[in-house]
Amino acid sequence: MKNRELTLNIFRYDPNIPGREPYMQPYSLQETEGMTIFIALNQIRENQDPSLKFDFVCRAAICGSCGMLVNGRPRLACKTLTRDLPEVITLMPLPVFKLIGDLSVDTGSWFRQLSIKTGAWVHSDKSFNPNCQEERMSNETALKIYEAERCIECGCCIAGCATANIRDDFLGAAGLYKIARFMVDPRDERPEEKYFDVVSSEEGVFGCLGLMACEDNCPMELPLQVQLAYVRRKMALIGFRV
Amino acid sequence: MNTIVTDVLIIGAGLAGERTAIEAANQGLDVIILSLVPPRRSHSTAAQGGMQAALGNCAMGRGDNPSIHFEDTVKGSDWGCDQDVARLFCETAPTAVRQMAYWGVPWNRVAAGRKRLPGGQEIYELKEYEGLITARNFGGTAKWRACYTADGTGHTIQYTLDSIVIKLGIKVHDRMEALRLIHNGDKCMGVVARCLRTGKLYTYISKSTVLATGGCGRLYGASTNAVINEGSGMFLALETELVPLGNMEAIQFHPTGLVPVWILITEGARGDGGYLLDKNHHRFMPDYEPKKKELASRDVVARRMIMHMRKGYGVESPYGPHLWLDIRHLGEKHINTNLREIANICRNFAGIDPVNELIPVRPTQHYSMGGVRTNINGAVYGIKGLFACGEAACWDLHGFNRLGGNSLAETIVSGMIVGKKAAEYTLGTELTYSYQQVNNHYNIVRQKIKNIIGGKLNKKRHENVFELKNIMEDVLMKHVGIFRNGKDLLKAVNALQELYHRSRNISLRSSGTGASPELGLALRLPGMIKLALCVAYGALKRTESRGSHYREDYPRRDDKNWLKRTLAYWPEEKDLPCLKYEPVKITEIPPGDRGYGESPGKGGTS
Amino acid sequence: MQFQRIVTGKIKSDLYYDLIELFSGLFLAGFLGMHLIFESSIIAGKKVFNNLSQTLDENYLALAGISLVVVVFFIHFLTAGRRIPTRCKEQKIIWHHTGRLRHLNTWAWVLQIITGIIILILGSIHMWVVVTDRPIKAETSALRIQSGYLWFYVILLLLSVVHAGIGIYRQFIKWGWFPRKPLGYVIGFISIFFILLGFTALFTFLRAGGL
Ligand SMILES: Cc1cc2nc3c(=O)[nH]c(=O)nc-3n(C[C@H](O)[C@H](O)[C@H](O)COP(=O)(O)OP(=O)(O)OC[C@H]3O[C@@H](n4cnc5c(N)ncnc54)[C@H](O)[C@@H]3O)c2cc1C
Ligand code: HEM
Ligand code: HEM
Ligand code: SF4
Ligand code: F3S
Ligand code: FES
After folding, report:
1. Which atom of ligand 6 is closest in space to residue A63's alpha carbon?
2. What whole-number distance in Å separates Cα of residue B230 and Cα of residue B252?
3. Which ligand 1 atom sits closest to the C-alpha of B158?
4. Are residues A111 and A230 in the same domain?
5. Which one, A238, B43, B465, B467, has least CB within 10 Å?
6. Going by beta carbons, is chain B in contact with chain C, meaning 3 or more pairs sit under 8 Å apart?
7. A118/A87 same-domain check
């Protein structure tokens, strides 16, 4: 196991250069103790190919920048240890998102669009009074909202979902999870129909087929199934009420 | 030339940038934010611990008020902070936290009842405070004051702020890197920026510009910071030749960075009873600090650790010597619930199970107190129409040592204040610029890029940008770390100067076309080396110890000569900063004992 | 929002479609279970089988039931079938995707689509054959099976049970009625039970003499 010689097959493509075809490029490098894909890719960029494009920011599984397909599966590259992988590792960019180049994809714009589409902010008519104490909230409610806000928008669930792969307008698990975050927040005064308009369609919760690749590939291990089902039931209920 | 015009241009979409943007947009101004990454990927999201604000709702924070917070901040800064700023900050922080709650941050709340702390102490949360925002303990404070959301404080604040930015329709141009400030020697008029999707250059013209680009931790090889924290806003300001950087030598180290990925292991590990061990598995902190042991303040623990390793008690590893953090005795249940984040970090990034293995740790660069020097309004010295806030700025709230939790609070509070002031300025000014001036700056950047990509022929040497960066990191780690002395600092300054010269001969090994990452680094590196020189040279000249700046050859604080702030300017043709000094504003608390310094006894294991 | 969406207002059709799909699927799965149990009455003997068939016929239950099943069968085809990726590009993406991902539940879904399409054909044939040859009698059934329909039924049995099993699993997941892991086991066991039951019945028909 020690000191293996790793081969990384990396997807190369630059959409800014017209006419160039995508291809796979192999790189070999020596594995070191505690090596992650983050370390490996940076070594390749420093020592072998400075033109290689990929994204890392926090390198600590917090920011959600570094989602990519590691041997076909969506993973956060920064928290993927090479020692858990075979000697030959294939790296490809996440599908669904716009490809910026090589392993770099534009998850940022996708998620921004999602937030705009779903109105992902607390909707309230109250105004803020700087001289007043904060409104009270039970700690359980606070923790529940926090739990629903832990998604780091890495896009792994979207990339893993077959529906999202063929339907551009599908909100995906992250989108439905985001909706749930505002549904559990008592500060959000949106009437229920508003949620219904946004998510009760094929683009939303009724487009989900329960494939569960989202939950199985979420690096935050979020309870996506439970939340998706919650949204679905809620939407069905609202659907019969309004 | 692609040109975009706006009222207020904000560089940086971290907490400081977004909060400023909201404030300015609320005054009816047209605002654009530029960022290297989508806002929610900014480094701010990595903060887990908390945000200081004297609400006084929880049992251990009862009786807290802005004055106590103020006192903690001033003492923490080792009297290096601007006391007017600290006062304003402490008074505003509670409002800032409450406003964040109004916008949607799910702050943890007070739950009434009896509770037992890990240390065994019993506390009682009162019914009348139930449901109000609670707080947790953070080093160096008299009261529990750090408001938090479980283990994701930075994440929730950033997501909430960004949701407001989206709601207000504020434009964010992400993957857009500001490369140069456009100015006419008197007034700032925007920036030249490079698109990190396509490599195209853009000019942004604005009535006012705000730098909120975060810290410069990545000057150091071992840093807890995100990899994009390369201090670009700081050298952008420095390169105007008009703007000084304040107190760049004030760099904070965190005692426990995980070797070798340098991810932060939070204080919680020690707070809950973790020990620090040396290579003989001996718990050495009580030898040095019999009273506070592992829980002495950050800078003290970090220094003791380095001291102990210097004595030869460090564990050797391919990544240099380190020490062990031991939490095994806390038990599997405690580790997997209360310290879940830490346990996950160890498992995911080092393949270590802290339930039955030791965690390798070493003090690691963590925070830059220094930055673009501004006045209390956030207006940058030396140029009109330019503002700065957040970690990029030296507003001077932190002096020579930042209190944990004060920086998140600073981003929000300074965002509120600076946003308002920038808006006032913007409303009272006209957009005047000459095409010629803008074009000049644009051409300077274009020429730079040309030189790096195409100028191979007329260069004598072809320097590799990654190699130079590694040297810079090593020099700072080795000679401008926690313990500093004249000899080493001089070495560092010389080495960095040489590096600065070499950086003019950088040649790319890739084509550098499009959004080339190599070109990006090549454009930043000379500026980063300038910052490194500001740190090293400032530290060399400051012949005293204050806060996190610790000189072995001058181990005492020297208020007579050094109760002043370093201002580093960079004249273009020079290879060293020009240092000036200004007095520190003392209004309420005169210099005294910090109250949580090192124990006088030397201790030691032998 | 675009014009065409504004003028059409909010629609609940996606909700209704989803529910029809759900109930048609559940109904067919329930029917399949009942059907297999009735079928296997042959194990207890020809008499039992024939009596059962006769009772159902006399109460017009068979007629009503058969019509209902046929209708629901096609409703289900129309509602659940709309999920089938039909465009070439989509199918190519799905194959690429599932091949790379190697994810059990996603594969199960692909399997369900394939089985569904085959069931559409085999099921239609089966129903046509049986319904045009009423009343249902152990003798005729045995004859059919012995005269070469055996493989047809083996395949239909496997496909239907797998299809229904996966279908119910995913519906329960989607609506959050049961935790995933235990649900998988329970449905797995039930499916195996029905397959064994079906095989035994087929075997009995095969061995049934007296023709
Ligand atoms: C691991 C860790 C834990 C921490 N925990 C805490 C804590 O618990 N409590 C606390 O108070 N503090 C904590 N801190 C400190 C605190 O997180 C930071 O000081 C604070 O988040 C800085 O915010 P900011 O908005 O100034 O900068 P950042 O969040 O770093 O944002 C900088 C922004 O500027 C952009 N940018 C940079 N350069 C350019 C350029 N050239 N062009 C365009 N855009 C640019 C970036 O894209 C980014 O959006 C922690 C720090 C670390 C490293
Ligand atoms: C319209 C109503 C239906 C009737 C009246 C009916 C009747 C029968 C009969 C009488 C048999 C015995 C074999 C024979 O006589 O050929 C049989 C077997 C079978 N039918 Fe149906 N059927 C119906 C619908 C379906 C449907 C919709 C399915 C599933 C898709 C199905 C699946 C099967 C299977 C798998 C067998 C073999 C049973 C075994 O393994 O023992 N049938 N059916
Ligand atoms: C006419 C032929 C059939 C076709 C084309 C077909 C197709 C499908 C498809 C594509 C799905 C998946 C829907 C989705 O992805 O959500 C599905 C679901 C399902 N099918 Fe079928 N099917 C057929 C017959 C049957 C039969 C005979 C049964 C009963 C034995 C059955 C039981 C189910 C169940 C229980 C579900 C799950 C409910 C759902 O997802 O809507 N199907 N079917
Ligand atoms: S739900 Fe999980 S996988 Fe999906 S974006 Fe959020 S964190 Fe990533
Ligand atoms: S993978 Fe896709 S279909 Fe639904 S359950 Fe997850 S979103
Ligand atoms: S780099 Fe931030 S999640 Fe991987």
Report:
1. 2
2. 15
3. 29
4. yes
5. B467
6. no
7. no
Q: What percent of chain B has pLDDT over 90?
A: 83
* Cα B54 to Cα C117: distance, rounded to the nearest angstrom: 66
Q: Which of C57, C126, C129 to mutate to test the pocket of ligand 2 (most atoms within 8 A of CB)?
A: C126
Give the length of chain A: 242
Q: How far is CA B559 from the centre of its chain?
A: 25
- C106 CA: distance to closest CA in chain A (Å): 5
Catalytic-labelled residue, pool B43, B270, B304, B308: B270
Cβ <8 Å between A134 and B46: no
Residue A129 domain-assigned?
Answer: no
What pLDDT score does C74 carry? 94
For residue B254, indicate whether it is catalytic: yes
- List, for chain B, all residue ranges whose pLDDT scores fall below the cut of 50: 600-606
Work out how many domains chain A is built from and give that number.
Answer: 2
- Let me know if residue A152 belongs to a domain: yes
Verify that A69 and A173 share a domain, yes or no.
no
Q: At what angle do helices C61-80 and C46-58 cross, to 10 degrees?
A: 90
Residue C123 CB less than 6 A away from ligand 2: yes
Shared domain check, A114 and A63: no
Burial B389-423 (b: 16+ CB within 10 A, else e): bbbbbbbbbbbbbbbbbbbbbbbbbbbbbbbbbbb
Structural domain span for residue A192:
107-124+135-241
Q: Same structural domain for residues A69 and A169?
A: no
How high does pLDDT run on average in chain A? Answer: 94
Given pLDDT bands bounded at 50, 70 and 90, which one contains residue C118?
very high
**Residue A187: inside a domain:** yes
**Pair (A232, A146) in one structural domain:** yes
CA distance B318 to B308: 19
Quote the pLDDT of residue A192: 86
Q: Residue A216 sits in a domain of what CATH number?
A: 1.10.1060.10
d(CA B304, CA B297) in angstroms, rounded, equals: 11
Same domain, A59 and A118: no
**Is A112 found in the same domain as A82?**
no
From ligand 6's centre to the CA of A62, what distance in Å?
6
In a domain, A31, yes or no: yes
The CATH number covering residue A59 comes to: 3.10.20.30
pTM over 0.90: yes
Asked if B82 contacts B395 with a C-beta cutoff of 8 angstroms, the reply is yes
Among the listed residues B43, B145, B254, B398, the single catalytic one is B254
Instruction: Tell me whether residues B110 and A60 touch, CB distance under 8 A.
Output: no
Judge: B174–A16 Cβ closer than 8 Å, yes or no: no
